[in-house]
Amino acid sequence: MKIQNSIVLFCALISFSVQSQNANPVVTIRPNEIISNEFIGNGIEFSAYPHADTDDSEWGKLMTDEKWQLVFDRVSFIKPKIARVMDQANWRYLKGFDASGNPIVDFESDQMKALYKLLNYCEKNKITVILGEWGQPYKVHDTYLNLQNSFTGANDQKWIDLIIKNLNHLLKVKKYSCIKYYNLVNEPNGDWATTDGDFQQWREGIEMLHKSIAKAGLDKYISIIGPDATSFNNPRSKYKGLDWVKQTALQIPDLVSAYDVHDYPSKESIRSGEFQKIFGDLVRFTDSVHRKPFILGELGLKGEPSSKEHLDDKFTSADSQLSIYDYDYGVDMADALIQSMNSGFDAVIAWDLDDAMHTKDDKGDKYKLKRWGMFNSLGKELTDSKADEDLRPWFYTWSIMTRNFTSDMKIVKFNNLNIEKVRATAGVTKSGDFTIAIANNSDKEASFTIDTKNLKLKPEVIKYLYSENKRPVDAKGFPVPSEKFKLKTDGIQVSIPAKSVILYTSYQQ
User: Fold this and answer.
1) Whole domain around residue 400: which residue ranges?
2) Considering only CA atoms, which of 411, 439, 435 is closest in space to residue 499?
3) Contacts of 453 by beta carbon, 8 Å cutoff, 6+ apart
4) Phi, then psi, of 33 in degrees rounded to 5
5) The whole model's pTM is what?
6) Cα separation, 245 vs 25, whole angstroms
7) Do 78 and 172 lie in a common domain?
8) Are residues 107 and 251 in the same domain?
9) What is the pLDDT of residue 150?
10) Which of 16, 86, 188, 487 is 20 to 30 A removed from 242 (C-alpha atoms)?
11) Quick one: CA dihedral 131, 137, 142, 143, positive or negative?
């Protein structure tokens, strides 16, 4: 009798276990648990094609009106809320020095007109712009182009005064209201930067720039963002990479209006979720010291390239990520973006938009393209491959997540989503609009229910699906919804294939 009862009990336990495994977990969105209350939105690195913008550039004027329109059409689909526009004084407006050593500037040069074309687009489309210079003029990546003794570093008042002249022209004369932040020196902690990891030099430059902006009456138009550091550790720097952010918050919080950092995590750190933990801790630290917007100013994935067909491509520099051609990169970048938003970043900027924007060390060698883009707008002209102008897979996920997470949203918490390598983020507005993005970076399908009963959401829902077997597009290659449905009282039933991305939104675009 005891044996029979034991068998019955054992069978019952097995049955319960199987039912528990098959039952869909229920996850909830907590609108009162806000991750980002200052959400700006996501965007792109956007450069004015320094090697192809004018007749005098290294490649000549390959960026014709037709090419610009191709780029603008694609950017218009992405609908970036923010763009990082980095440049170099000697690429645009600095034309040399007079006999007294004073800079000669030309704000109506052909190079400046190319920049105006880009800024006009941002102004018209209400895209917040981070403007800045890669580093000290005439010095790029420790390679002196000419006039190497013209400036002494980021803390040279002569360079700061030159920056102020440019800002005064752009903000007061051209009246670009889209330019909100100024970035002094790209990745100043790196050994490739013109500051070579000298925090004191960079800090003195920030102090000079802050004072000069106020003196020129430009502080009502623009403010400073920093430190723009990477997680790379330069042995010559006093501080480790991410410690630059902490020291900015501790030492000069009143001089910057927003923090920013760059990162190129490994695929494994994204797939494991380690990335979110590292940056969640960093954002929480800065919030505890002096809360202000925190922007991930460059995001891309480092790792072994997997596109065999492009490994021997003679146009590709060592500074490239050939996985941009692969389907999986679209999943990984969506996962990285979800983790970034869940970490508390108020904006995330993809590196980068277009292969045609930059070359290794920006010397204009077409055989050393920086292949990180969503496409190569000059594929035919530079590589004799029209197909290289096609949209790459990760355009799909980055665009749907950028256009549908809007600046009027609060990014809020998902609770109880405990499925390995499945991550989600949500944005909601006061009016009931919402966007939910889910990435499944595992090797098996995942199913769960999103409980929406505690949310006042608009009932019409659009679903986008990015999967290996199904990712519908229109004639231009732009993503289109895979489904439209009405929100039910029992929430949203999610069934997401392995290695795929789903986005739900109420925005009828």
Assistant:
1) 43-404
2) 439
3) 489, 491
4) -100, 90
5) 0.93
6) 38
7) yes
8) yes
9) 80
10) 86
11) positive
